[in-house]
Write a structure and sequence with these properties.
140 residues; flat
Length: 140
């Protein structure tokens, strides 16, 4: 299933699914007609158009900030694994940095918060990397 980001959050995009409950057989199964498939495609196209209109209406800064938050979360997820996935976390942090540094002054009111988050994620990466290299602490 696909999804599309809108100002109201992630919106799933899916085709109509058959009923999850088994049907009582009343006769042979039939394939959908061309008209039924066309109606389904038309409804899907209409929903997609509506979602695209919502996305176009959203401030671009907000959409980009949403993607930046996704990179932040991705880095945090890889750092939280046991053992941490340091290479993957580094890549996500570097991608977030490239995004923020490449768009300096253009991300609107969320830019300061995003930069603070990048600094915190970099600090967490350094701390977790050091702890991972040292190995588990031993008791005396």
């Amino acid at each position: 299933m696909s999804s599309l980001w809108t100002p109201d959050g992630e919106r799933p995009i899916r085709r109509a699914q058959p009923d999850p409950e088994p049907r009582v057989a009343e006769g042979p199964e039939r394939e959908p007609t061309e008209a039924e498939l066309a109606a389904e495609d038309s409804a899907l196209a209409e929903e997609m158009k509506h979602l695209q209109d919502e996305l176009v209406a959203a401030p671009v800064e907000a959409v980009i900030a949403n993607h930046a938050v996704g990179l932040f979360n991705l880095a945090g997820l890889h750092l939280s694994q046991d053992p941490p996935h340091l290479d993957e976390a580094r890549l996500a942090i570097d991608a977030l940095a490239a995004l923020l540094e490449g768009l300096t002054g253009r991300l609107g009111p969320d830019e300061t918060t995003l930069r603070d988050g990048l600094a915190q994620m970099r600090m967490a990466f350094v701390q977790i990397s050091a702890a991972h290299r040292e190995g588990p602490a031993t008791g005396t």
